[in-house]
Amino acid sequence: MIEEIGVICSIEQHNNQQVVMVETQIKSTCGSCEAQSNCGTGAIAKVFASKREMLRFQLNELVEVGQKVSLGIPEENLLKASAMVYCLPLFALVLSALVGQSILPLVGLMAEGWLILLSAISTYLTFRFVRRFLSSADQGDFYPRIIKVFPLEIDNIQIKQV
């Protein structure tokens, strides 16, 4: 399970259900690297490091704004989504190039430009399909879940003398 800590930033009521908005901060691996001061990638990562992600969850527990929660997604689901995003479009590119190389001359389109255009269109359509599929699985396997709700932190700790 890959876990991340988020903070509840708003609470809404929809159809007698509590909907919470959880904010997480996207982290870069450059933050823990010792060579980040001498690295161009580290300098670029600092520019884009302040990104935040807002996620919406239905939650039955009573929570307050500012409370921290632990979010998690199983590794196998993350690997499936990554394979869909990277491998399917690549497979579509190669397959459309092979099929187009056989079929386009039969139609009378001999130039390589038509083959490139066919491959680009099929790859683009595959990207769109994967994007739609993953966004329609919004609360499904590819979406993180709230694993744990941490208690609200108390600033003033009272000490009892014995």
Comma- or semicolon-separated keywords:
162 residues, alpha+beta, OB fold (Dihydrolipoamide Acetyltransferase, E2P), 2 domains, 5-stranded antiparallel beta sheet, elongated, transmembrane helix, membrane, Sigma-E factor negative regulatory protein RseC
Measure the end-to-end span: 44 Å
- CATH architecture descriptor text of the largest domain: Beta Barrel
- Strand segment count: 5
* Mean pLDDT metric: 81
Radius of gyration, whole Å: 24 Å
Transmembrane segments: 78-100, 106-127
Protein name: Sigma-E factor negative regulatory protein RseC
Keywords: Membrane, Transmembrane, Transmembrane helix
Pfam family, one: RseC_MucC
Short account of what is shown:
Helices cover 41% and strands 25% of the residues. The chain has 162 residues and is α+β, with helices and mostly antiparallel strands.
Describe the protein in words:
This protein has 162 residues and is of the alpha+beta class. The protein folds into 2 domains: 2-73, Beta Barrel (OB fold (Dihydrolipoamide Acetyltransferase, E2P)), CATH 2.40.50; 77-137, no CATH class. Helix content is 41%, strand content 25%. The chain has 3 helices and 5 strands. It has a 5-stranded antiparallel β-sheet with strand order 3-2-1-4-5. The protein is elongated. The relative contact order is 0.17.
